[in-house]
């Protein structure tokens, strides 16, 4: 039944929502057994991620008795506040958080969704992959994961050494493999790589019967991860992405600890935002101050919880595992 053409009913059936509740309880038990404790951090902040591919929701705080508007941002991730807790010696922590990304919609996207994020001081990236694998198997009953480097992915699918080939080689490969690209379309190296992943690799991964971790990304895609050198001496980002059925589920880092380098990356992001006619984002000075004091050596990962449920319960779109989809 609908009123004024709109249905008031949930977008997920009640049985699915009961299963969601059980999964949430099982996730909490998984971390409790490992001594990782649950935290909550603010949803609103006066700063936000600067990454050009993220658009934050904004709202204005007006103190009572004034007309002064203070711009705030809804979190796209609880990462920055959680890292401040890590710098305050919290130890291993996790959060099940509501997060918001302006403009995202579709079967696999929602502008409001649930993120499972955790940080493990003392674990390297591959030890964190082991833990994510444990969560997938013990809580969600997925098969054991495969692991493949970003370079290995491009060698397998495109016969390219993505860490040493030229920009023109990547561009030529993308134009040859993606027929829908307009002749006048142009982007940078990472843009061409992202297109190849989205249009060629992800559809192929959909046929895999197990989750896949892709690790050692190009250094230009480090985001908030450390840079390291692989066995061939190439600079790579010490981070991974997790795919299940061709769908990106998680993003994990060996976390960058250098506050000065992080500030530089934020400023570079804002330069890109200017070039793209996007608003410049205030830097999170509290995070940078915490990192100056000292963030412990740690790895962290963020998992799109709704996407994970969608795949675990064999649903076709995110709204089918949410009480009320954003649309």
What does this 3D model show about the protein?
With 327 residues, the chain is α+β, with helices and mostly antiparallel strands. The protein has a single domain (2-145, 210-321), classed as BirA Bifunctional Protein, domain 2 (2-Layer Sandwich), CATH 3.30.930. 35% of the residues lie in helices and 23% in strands. It has nine helices and 14 strands. It has helices at residues 14-32, 79-87, 125-138, 150-158, 167-177, 189-205, 259-275, 285-293, 305-312, and strands at 2-3, 6-7, 37-38, 44-45, 58-61, 70-74, 93-100, 112-121, 146-149, 212-218, 227-229, 235-244, 247-254, 298-304. The strands form three sheets. Strands 3, 7, 8, 9, 10, 11, 12, 13 and 14 form a nine-stranded mixed sheet that branches. Strand 11 (227-229) and strand 12 form a beta hairpin. Helix 7 (259-275) packs antiparallel against helix 8. The model has no long low-confidence stretch (mean pLDDT 94).
What attributes does this structure have?
single chain; 327 residues; alpha+beta; BirA Bifunctional Protein, domain 2; nine-stranded mixed beta sheet; 9 helices; 14 strands; 35% helix; 23% strand
List the helices and strands and how they pair.
Elements: E1 2-3, E2 6-7, H1 14-32, E3 37-38, E4 44-45, E5 58-61, E6 70-74, H2 79-87, E7 93-100, E8 112-121, H3 125-138, E9 146-149, H4 150-158, H5 167-177, H6 189-205, E10 212-218, E11 227-229, E12 235-244, E13 247-254, H7 259-275, H8 285-293, E14 298-304, H9 305-312
Parallel strand pairs: 3-7, 9-10
Antiparallel strand pairs: 1-2, 4-6, 5-6, 7-8, 8-14, 10-12, 11-12, 12-13, 13-14
Helix pairs in contact: 2-8, 5-6, 7-8
């Amino acid at each position: 039944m609908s009123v004024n053409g709109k249905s008031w009913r949930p977008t997920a059936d009640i049985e699915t929502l009961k299963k969601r509740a059980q999964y949430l309880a099982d996730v909490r038990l998984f971390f409790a057994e490992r001594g990782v404790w649950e935290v909550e951090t603010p949803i609103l902040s006066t700063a936000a991620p600067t990454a050009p591919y993220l658009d934050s929701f904004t709202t204005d705080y007006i103190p009572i008795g004034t007309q002064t508007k203070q711009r705030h941002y809804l979190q796209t991730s609880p990462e920055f506040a959680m890292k401040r807790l890590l710098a305050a010696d919290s130890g291993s922590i996790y959060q099940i958080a509501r997060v918001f990304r302006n403009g995202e919609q579709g079967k696999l996207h929602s502008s409001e969704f649930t993120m499972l994020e955790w940080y493990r001081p003392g674990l390297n990236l591959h030890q964190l992959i082991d833990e994510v694998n444990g969560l997938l198997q013990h809580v969600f009953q997925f098969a054991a994961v495969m692991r493949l480097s970003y370079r290995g992915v491009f060698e397998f699918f495109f016969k390219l050494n993505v860490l040493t080939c030229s920009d023109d080689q990547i561009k030529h490969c993308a134009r040859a493999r993606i027929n829908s690209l307009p002749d006048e379309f142009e982007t940078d190296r990472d843009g061409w790589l992202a297109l190849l992943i989205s249009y060629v690799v992800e559809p192929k991964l959909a046929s895999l019967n197990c989750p896949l971790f892709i690790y050692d990304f190009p250094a230009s895609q480090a985001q908030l991860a450390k840079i390291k050198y692989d066995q061939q001496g190439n600079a790579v980002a010490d981070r991974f992405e997790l795919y299940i059925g061709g769908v990106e589920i998680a993003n994990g880092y060996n976390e960058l600890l250098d506050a000065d380098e992080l500030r530089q990356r934020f400023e570079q992001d804002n330069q890109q935002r200017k070039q793209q006619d996007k608003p410049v984002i205030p830097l999170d000075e509290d995070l940078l101050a915490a990192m100056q004091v000292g963030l412990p050596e740690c790895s962290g990962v963020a998992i799109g919880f709704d996407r994970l449920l969608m795949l675990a319960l064999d649903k076709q779109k995110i709204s089918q595992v949410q009480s009320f989809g954003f649309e």
